[in-house]
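This entry is retained here.
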Amino acid sequence: MTALPPTIVAISLKMYFTHARTLEWCRRVRGIADSHDAVGPDGTGLLVLPTFPALVGAREILGDAVALGAQDVAVADHGPHTGEVGAPELAEIGCTVAEIGHAERRAAGEDDSVVGAKVVAALRNGLVPLVCVGEATRTGPDAAAAGVAAELDRVLAPARDAGLLPAPLIVAYEPHWAIGAPEPAPAEHVAAVCGRLRTELDSVGGSTRVLYGGSAGPGLLGRLGGTVHGLFLGRSAHDPDAIVRVLDETTGREADT
C-alpha cells in the first residue's frame, strides 16, 4: 500500500479471534475484495491487521487483493529484543503497513518518543505508518483539533528530522473516549479534527490519508461526508457483511480536497 488508494477501509482484529477463525475470516474478506466493485487501486483499498502469528497465513489468503498490516512494530530492526517484531521481518513476510501509537499501546506506557521512534523504524524499512492519534478525554472540537494536531506534529518530528518525510502516511483519528463506546464521536467533531489533521499533513507532503476510528461501523461514512478518506474498523467488522455495507458506502464517494 505504498501507493495509497483514494479511500481506505482498515480493520484491526486486535486479539479477539483464534488463529483458525482469523484465517477463515480472511477467506471471506478475500472473497469480498474479489467481488465488490468499490475495491481497487483507484477506488477503495482494504487493509487488514491481524495478530502477529496470523500474518503469514493471512498473506497467503489475501494475496494482492487486500493490504496486510501489523498491529505494532519494534523500535529496533534486529537484536536482543525478546517479544518484539522488527520492521524488516514484517516487510519480508508481506506487510506494507504498521499500526503505531494506538490508545491501548499508549495506556500500556508508550509515549510520544516511543511512537516517534516506531514511525522512523517503519519508514526506514519501507512500511507505511498507520499513526493513531486522539485525545484522552472529551473536549470541544476546536480544543480536540488543536491537541491532536500537536500530537501528530510531535510523533512525526523524529521522522522529519531524519529526512524520512515526505512519505506515504495514514493517520487514524481515534478519540480515546470513543473507542469501544456505543456510538462514535459526533460527525461535526470528527469533521473539525480530521480537517485540521489534513491541513497538517498537507504541510508534510507526500501521499497521506486520514481515517476515523473509534466505534466506527456501517452507516457512519455517509454522515462524515468528505471529511475523511475512510474508516478504521474494529469489532463492527467481525461480521464480514458489515464490511460489505461499509464498502457500499464508499462507492462514488470522494473526500473533500
Summary: Residues 7-177+193-215+226-250 form a domain with the TIM Barrel fold (CATH 3.20.20.70). The radius of gyration is 17 Å.
